[in-house]
Amino acid sequence: xxxLGWMTAGGALLLVxxxxxxxxxxxxxxxxxxxxxxxxxxxxxxxxxxxxxxxAQREMLERLCEFAVIVSLFVGGLRLRLPLRHxxxxxxxxxxxxxxxxxxxGATIVAAWLLQLPILLAILLxxxxxxxxxxLASAVSVNDAEDHDQVRFALSGEAGLxxxxxxxxxxxxxEGLRAGGIGEWVGPWFISRLLxxxxxxxxxxxxxxxxxGLVAIxxxxxxxxxxxxxxxxxLALIALSYAAAEGVHAWGFLSVFAAGVGLRHAEVRVVRAxxxxxxxxxxxxxxxxxxxxxxxxxxxSETLLPLRVNDAALKQPSIAAGVLISEAISFGETxxxxxxxxxxxxxxIVLNQAWxxxxxxxxxxxxCVIRPLATITLLRGTRTTSSQRxxxxxxxIRGIGSMYYLSYAxxxxxxxxxxxxxxxxxxxxxxxxxxxxxxxxxxxxxxYEQTLATRRA
Length: 457
Prior knowledge:
There is one protein chain. 70% of the residues lie in helices and 0% in strands. The protein is built from 16 helices and no strands. It has helices spanning 3-19, 21-26, 31-42, 58-79, 89-114, 119-128, 150-165, 167-179, 186-222, 230-247, 252-273, 317-354, 357-378, 386-394, 400-411, 417-456. The chain is globular and about 65 Å long.
């Protein structure tokens, strides 16, 4: 097919998805499931229009997945508006920390036994499959900054944190494979890749997001210009926070996520100091510029924007903050959805030559045993209910983050037969996640929301 033909096919697909989005939302499947089917249809298993070798295309795949992940991490951070000391952050931290480590340990054991892998290669595969996905998990993540549901917030926070928190374990396995085993390199790895890189990435990103956000809002108030490109500001913050973290040998993924959280908290500080005059709804009383027990008192500033924002309106700090956040989220979501279509179709295309029944069994054990058991056990001390812990255990969706780690390993020495083996395992597990979680997400969440509504009644 010519480039013009592919452009036509791509445009037609986007048009159909745009016009039928309301109908698709009623189906008991996710949009990612549909994209996967399209990939299967145009790949070798269907019409045979495309055949892709991920090992040969590893460098292109790494850049594409890297950009998809950092944009979605930034947007995910922007949606998390609760204070850092709020109790809802604890389940997210536990999921991204102890639960993830337990999942890596369990998946390592199963992969070594089921796929007959050497222990370091099994650790690498388990680390690749550790991050939950910030791109494909949109149905179970926080919808907007007013969404404080415990399950959605925990899954969103986990997806933002563990895409970077899994990186040290990927590097650990790669270093071990390169060195031929455990050796003196473990000490420097522990100090530089864990003790330094994790907190440094989070701290640097948060401070950059908070500081740049406050400066940008102040400039917009003093020099109001409704046509100012706030999406450029978001792209600049993504690039600078990632580059700055990598420059000091911290984790860029964690930095970008924290930058999104920091930018959101800049908005919180602004509206706390200068509340919007129309912020009056809860219980018929004016919102105070203070923190409530469970949620921030002032609603997100982007929800209070007038239909038309002119230069005069931007002199109100809460409006300037709302415009900045709204345009940053809009830009990020557009890029995120576009890359989701491309990458999931890519997974569908390669699934024919990458499918592995043993890897599918690994996926079932990971989704149905390892992740739920670790989540239910390690989250018992939190304010989550038993039904919420079961939901959190089930919705450990794997996706683009795992694809990035796969491409990273391929470009860092594993482009031999071990690389093809990892491609089989990772692509199969992601496909199983798209199918199993995509089919179950609508009925499971509908039941959960009905249960919540019944309890509130």
